[in-house]
Amino acid sequence: DVVMTQSPLSLPVTLGQPASISCRSSQSLVHSDGNTYLNWFQQRPGQSPRRLIYKVSNRDSGVPDRFSGSGSGTDFTLKISRVEPEDVGVYYCMQGTHWPLFFGQGTKLEIK
Amino acid sequence: QVQLVESGGGVVQPERSLRLSCAASGFPFSSYAMHWVRQAPGKGLEWVAIISYDGSNKYYADSVKGRFTISRDNSKNTLYLQMSSLTTDDTAMYYCARDSWGSGPACPEYWGQGTQVTVSS
């Protein structure tokens, strides 16, 4: 099984400041088709998850451009350039390359 | 727009069975793979199962393999999760999610609001 490890698990951030979340996989997430299936999700308090980023760096429709994804192989990062109040919640990475699928443990972003 | 509405949750005794449904609308259901993902109270997301667009391929988390069965009825635009031999560890909110593609690597894109399953004697 491919284990996904996120850090930090708790992330206090001042409004307007940047934030960064790391996600590491226990195996390479490069698929045989050449793509890397690493997704990022946001779950606001009391809401269903929402996908932000797919295939490492592709932002979903409606996602603000302050969110960006990067990385390759086993090492990935979600960055928020300037944290806004509506960014409070838990962020999860998820690998879609190998069966069974796994999410990271989640990173709780809060405002300092 | 894409809508996914889960139903069938409730309180069930250990070792009993339960079937969840997910009614889909706003997109060609028969063209997309579908997932079930769960979240225990206060915990993170746990992927449960996926079924390809035509039902020919199914994969499961180790924690549910042999106890849960994912299926779909493309004529009814509905996804199912048959759960048996339930334990208290299966207590969770269960979400259905639509993938970006019909089969192959997974990218859950759209999510429902979830249905709560509580296993308790």
Please outline the major beta sheet of chain A. Answer: 7 strands, mixed
Beta-strand percentage range of chain B? over 45%
Greatest interface and its residue counts? Answer: A-B, 28 and 24 residues
Low-confidence stretches of chain B: none
Q: What's the number of extended β-strand segments of chain A?
A: 11
The overall strand count of chain B is: 11
Mean pLDDT of chain B: 97
Radius of gyration of chain B: 13 Å
Content-based structural category of chain A: mainly beta
So how many helices of chain A? 0
Q: Describe the global form of chain A.
A: globular
Q: Helicity level of chain A, as a percent range?
A: under 10%
CA-CA gap between termini of chain A: 36 Å
Oligomer: heterodimer
Please state roughly what percent of the residues of chain A sit in beta strands, choosing from under 5%, 5-15%, 15-25%, 25-35%, 35-45% or over 45%. Answer: over 45%
In one word, what is the shape of chain B?
globular
Q: Uncertain runs of chain A with pLDDT below 50, 5 residues or more?
A: none
Q: How many helices of chain B? A: 0
